[in-house]
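Escalation from tier 1.

The customer reports that the assembly of two entities below gives different structure tokens on two consecutive runs. Tier 1 could not reproduce it. I'm attaching the input and our single run for tier 2 to review.
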Amino acid sequence: MTCREIVEFLRAYLDGELEQETRSTFEKHVGLCPPCEDYLRSYQEAIRLGKVCEAEDAPVDVPDRLVQAILAARKKTD
Amino acid sequence: MSTPTPEREDEAQLLEALRGGDESAYERLVRELGGRMLAVARRFVRQDDEAEDIVQEAFIQAFKNIDRFEGGSKLSTWLHRITVNAALMRLRKKSRRKEVAIEDLLPSFLDDGHRAEIGEPWTERGEDVAIREETRTLVRESIDRLPDSYRNVLLLRDIEQLDTAETAETLGITVNATKTRLHRARQALRELLDPHLQGGGVA
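Tier 1 run:
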């Protein structure tokens, strides 16, 4: 398995979609190839950072005028 | 049969009040779930005024269809889906943002299958380390540089936590296309973050 294939199979590997044999070959390669190991780690870190950085720090408040606008719009469409 | 939890019972009561046209029930729903919906809409459009329009559209649509809500899922899950759809609809109408072609953001390989450019590894960082504002901005801006068709898959799968089938259905694409786009979007995000995070950058 080449480094190109490792990168190609990464998502399937993380989602547990690889057959046992391919999975073993994948893991063996990653264990022996520091650039692929780094790539796998940074790929996972990019996913994590996306999640963390897109989350709001605190619960978002609905501005009162938006609440009123939504309730008013509901009455109009009733 | 499962015993209804207090939350479930509460939701059943709320639903009954909504269907009965109880004004205070509508207000309660907007106040309780509006904030989360606003956060979702902001992730897609990034502008507060547009996000508010989306939430308003989503609520109006939900109110109109409240009789069709089957109660198989939670009200919050149902409203989340409606908000996502309203946000996607809004994005489709908008003029295209300045995007980078996805091919330019994927790793390149030598003929022998090795990666062409290998930089420094990213520094290991504990999950409990607080995220700096600079990192937050960098990550959000990087996500915004992805082409819409990739950005939307990344947002739906990795951030909004829809599963592959739900994402495919929401976007009207196949399950295989969803998987491919998700992988490319993540690789592209990694690539955009790479120069900043090699050897312990901003994060």
